[in-house]
Design goal:
- With 357 residues, the chain is an alpha+beta fold.
- The protein has eleven helices and 14 strands.
- The strands form three sheets. The protein has an eight-stranded antiparallel β-sheet with strand order 3-1-2-4-5-6-8-7, sandwiched between helices. Strands 9-12-13 form a three-stranded antiparallel β-sheet, with helices on one face. Strands 10-11-14 form a three-stranded antiparallel β-sheet.
- The longest helix has 22 residues.
Length: 357
């Protein structure tokens, strides 16, 4: 926790275009998995709505999270094990108006800090003082690749709004120089871990009407990338048309919100691309959870035939699409030097190879 104040000051330096305005707020830094995860306002109660939209998936983490929410509600977060009240060394408060905030009073910031890595960012929830409701989310880069990722998401959200896509946050403000963006807050409960009908409705909403792509178009690209398995790429040289779609890139329960209307919204579009292959997000949803929650490598294509046909995909193409997902993911892991995930994916690919043999 020794770096909690440094991280917080880094966030506020980027939220302040000049010399800052007013005093820095009082925060309590709360750890998670030995890292600073939350910077919660000292008073506590105004963070209630934001915290209600989060829920860990491991049972031990859920117990800890319940304790954090309870302590926040009664204003005793600083008494939690490992929690530290921040002592500011320098700087001034953020200029919220320069970030698109239109409230009469300054908001109360509730800050989540992403996992350490090249794309680490801070997610600053702006809460109205009177109502306690979160009205906007500001994303702030904390690592070298985070700025480009945040600005890419802003471009994606602009395109989605132009096509009147209704399952994503709406962009409110962009500062290209700082790499800081503001978007609407999506209220809801975290998505379930099982692929459910609402997930398939969300996946179908990502299809691009009248547009097609093919496996061969993508395999030609992967074949020139480091780490691509040649035997798998060779099997993907198929020219049969497939429906093109928006590929979210991190379609996982923690990036899905179940809203009060029973539908779902997608958060964190930083890895999204237009014109991607269908079912890539569905396979990511399944394989990523196997990796993170101790599951064994397995292939899922026989279980996806029925929903795939509803998307205009023939059963004979589903296995090839799962193979395509695994090839693409291995290439990305090679580029990002993610050895743990790469080994898991290669073990999954070997299952497919043995079945073919």
């Amino acid at each position: 926790m020794s770096t909690a104040t440094e991280i917080a000051e880094s966030v506020f330096r980027q939220l302040t275009p000049t010399h800052g305005k007013g005093k820095l707020p009082r925060f309590v830094a709360v750890p998670g998995n030995d890292e600073v995860r939350w910077l919660l306002p000292f008073g506590g109660a105004k963070a209630r709505q934001v915290l209600a939209n989060w829920s860990p998936y491991r049972w031990r983490s859920r117990m800890g999270w319940a304790a954090i929410r309870a302590a926040n509600l009664v204003g005793h977060v600083r008494e939690l094990p490992g929690a530290v009240e921040l002592a500011w060394n320098s700087g001034g408060g953020a200029d919220w108006a320069s970030l698109g905030w239109q409230g009469r009073e300054e908001p109360i910031p509730v800050i989540y800090l992403g996992s350490p890595g090249p794309q680490r960012k801070a997610v600053v929830h702006l809460v109205e003082r009177g109502s306690g409701k979160c009205q906007a989310v500001v994303k702030v880069p904390l690592a070298e690749e985070a700025k480009a990722a945040i600005l890419h998401e802003a471009d994606v959200l602009e395109l989605l709004e132009k096509q009147r896509y209704g399952h994503a946050p709406r962009l409110l403000h962009v500062d290209p120089e700082r790499g800081v963006t503001t978007q609407t807050f999506v209220e809801g409960h975290p998505g379930r871990r099982r692929l459910a009908p609402e997930h398939w409705r969300l996946l179908r909403s990502l299809l691009l009407p009248g547009e097609t792509t093919s496996l061969s178009a993508w395999s030609a690209h992967w074949g020139h990338e480091a780490g691509s398995p040649a035997w798998a790429v060779e099997q993907l040289r198929e020219d049969s048309p497939l429906p093109a779609c928006w590929e979210h890139g991190d379609f996982a329960p923690w990036n899905i919100r179940r809203t009060t209307g029973g539908e779902c919204a997608l958060l964190d579009w930083e890895n999204a691309r237009r014109g991607g292959l269908p079912l890539m997000d569905a396979f990511h949803f399944l394989h990523m959870q196997n990796l993170l929650f101790g599951g064994r490598p397995q292939m899922y294509w026989p279980k996806l035939w029925d929903p795939a046909m509803e998307m205009g995909i023939a059963p004979s193409q589903v296995r090839s699409l799962e193979l395509a997902y695994l090839v693409c993911a291995v290439v990305e892991c090679t580029r990002q030097r993610n050895a743990t995930r790469q080994r898991f994916l290669q073990a999954t690919l070997e299952l497919s190879r043995r079945r073919v043999a």
